[in-house]
Design brief:
Blueprint (H helix, E strand, L loop, with lengths): L2 H25 L1 H7 L42 H123 L39 H9 L27 H6 L6 E5 L8 E6 L7 E7 L10 H6 L1 E2 L5 E2 L2 H9 L3 E8 L5 E11 L8 E3 L2 E3 L27 H5 L45 E8 L2
Antiparallel strand pairs: 1-2, 2-3, 3-5, 3-10, 4-5, 6-7, 6-10, 7-8, 7-9
Helix pairs in contact: 1-2, 1-3
The protein binds calcium ion.
Length: 487
């Protein structure tokens, strides 16, 4: 290919010489002859001179003839000239074509260069992509490795949790076994304690089984309540104090009336009055919290006045209704009072005593069972003896529909866990978990444990029972003890 332009260039040169030669011949045929004269070239013998011979046959290229070669055939005709012209024009066209070819070839070369450059770029790009792909592959392999590690860790964690749950079940089993052992030991300890008592004779008259159970199961037992056995409710927050009371013994002092803030709502800022009848006579006909001060009392007391029932004027000295207050308390607490005036409370033995000192009072016990039925026990007179007499209970005659379960407590002193004045060998407050005018131990336990549902199951009769109404194992839903001056 690279040889072509040179060959073609020579041909062009020859063609051009031929062209100028024929032009000259065309213009002046005589000159041709003249130029053939020998003296024309004698001046410079080194020069090579050419004579173009135009043969009759078709000429396919330039023809050189030596000077002096002259025949008749050398004579150039017009026809020959035309032929040469045709040939020349043809060759010129071919030259043009060749030029075009050369141009195209150059373009092709450029294009090829561009393509090569592009190819190099592509190669570079491909290499780059390949590297990127390799990187991606490596990264994915790393990721899959990481994933595998994670899976392993998850599996390990699962195995660990299974192991822990198995261990937990094992511990539960052991805990159950230990609980059983503890229970057995409790029984054993109780038996040993009893043996000790017998050996040392400290409590020969003590009844290890607790006080005799109340056997009264009257006909008017609220039978609409199913006689299921119920335990102390553990899921009721308000019963927590009661449960604590039944299990952990009396509080040293407990909350007293002095520590209380007046509850919102029905609260009279007037007074203090002698009692609730006095407040009613002063125009306060609404039930609520009042401030009273019995004549000999050293301090005023907050109290709930029941002004709507049975002509009103009732001073509430005890209230139970939801188990929100612990009634398993010591002497001082029972003496001064505790609880919430608009909820459950005990007015206090000293306050009750001072109330009774200022006139003749009667007593009303209001009981509500778990069907919502209310029954009453009223005593025609009521007062307490002073603390020196253990706040001995003095009652009149019974009247009502609840049955007389307090009459047997008449004349009894008050007993708490830390002051045993009852008629039983042991301490009734211990067994019946409250404070009361226990006998041995008795037919009523209105300061006992607040059980839900009525019939309860307990080792001792420690519920809020009124034996004549429901028996010793039926705990009332609500109780109120009230006093009022006798009309
Ligand atoms: Ca006793």
């Amino acid at each position: 290919m690279s040889m072509c332009p040179a060959a073609w260039g020579l041909l062009v040169l020859c063609g051009l010489s031929l062209w100028t030669g024929t032009q000259g011949l065309a213009k002046n045929p005589l000159l041709s002859r003249t130029r053939r004269a020998p003296d024309d070239y004698s001046g410079d013998p080194k020069k090579c001179s050419y004579t173009f011979l135009v043969p009759e046959q078709k000429i396919t290229g330039p023809i050189c003839a030596a000077r002096g070669y002259a025949t008749d055939k050398d004579r150039v005709t017009r026809l020959d000239v035309a032929s040469v012209r045709d040939l020349l024009s043809k060759q010129r066209r071919e030259v043009e074509t060749l030029k075009l070819v050369v141009d195209v070839d150059g373009n092709l070369v450029n294009e090829m260069k561009l393509l090569r450059k592009e190819s190099r770029n592509m190669n570079s790009r491909v290499t780059q992509l390949y590297m990127q792909l390799l990187h991606e592959i490596i990264r994915k392999r790393d990721n899959s490795l990481e994933l595998a590690q994670l899976e392993t860790r998850v599996l390990n964690a699962t195995a660990e949790s299974l192991r822990l749950s198995s261990r937990y079940r094992e511990l539960e089993t052991r805990f159950s076994a230990l609980s059983a052992v503890v229970n057995n030991q409790s029984v054993l300890i109780a038996a040993l304690e009893e043996r000790c008592m017998q050996v040392y004779g400290r409590r020969r008259d003590h009844h290890p089984e607790g006080p005799p159970l109340v056997q009264v199961v009257p006909e008017n037992l609220p039978v609409s309540v199913p006689r299921f056995t119920n335990e102390i409710q553990r899921d009721n927050g308000r019963e927590a104090p009661r449960e604590r009371g039944s299990r952990s013994g009396p509080s040293p002092t407990g909350s007293t009336m002095e520590a209380q803030k007046p509850p919102a709502g029905n609260f009279s800022v007037e007074g203090p009055y002698r009692d609730c009848l006095h407040a009613q006579e002063a125009g306060h006909t609404g039930s609520g919290v009042y401030l009273i001060r019995p004549e000999e009392a050293s301090r005023p007391l907050q109290v709930w006045c029941e002004q709507g029932m049975d002509n009103g004027g009732w001073t509430v000295i005890q209230s139970r209704r939801d188990g929100s207050v612990n009634f398993f308390r010591n002497w001082d607490s029972y003496k001064s009072g505790f609880g919430n005036i608009d909820g459950e409370y005990w007015l206090g033995l000293e306050g009750i005593y001072k109330l009774g000192r200022q006139g003749d009072y009667k007593l009303l016990v209001e009981l509500e069972d778990w069907t919502g039925k209310k029954v009453y026990a009223q005593y025609s007179s009521f007062h307490l003896e002073p603390e020196a007499e253990g706040y001995r209970l003095r009652l009149g005659t019974y009247q009502g529909n609840a049955g007389d379960s307090l009459g047997s407590h008449n004349g009894k002193q008050f007993t708490t866990l830390d002051r045993d004045k009852d008629g039983y060998a042991g301490n009734c407050a211990h067994f019946q978990k409250g404070g009361w005018w226990y006998n041995s131990c008795g037919q009523a336990n209105l300061n006992g444990v607040w059980y839900t549902g009525g019939v309860y199951r307990s080792k001792y009769q420690d519920g809020i029972f009124w034996a004549e109404y429901g028996g010793g194992f039926y705990s009332m839903k609500a109780v109120r003890i009230m006093v009022r001056p006798i009309d």
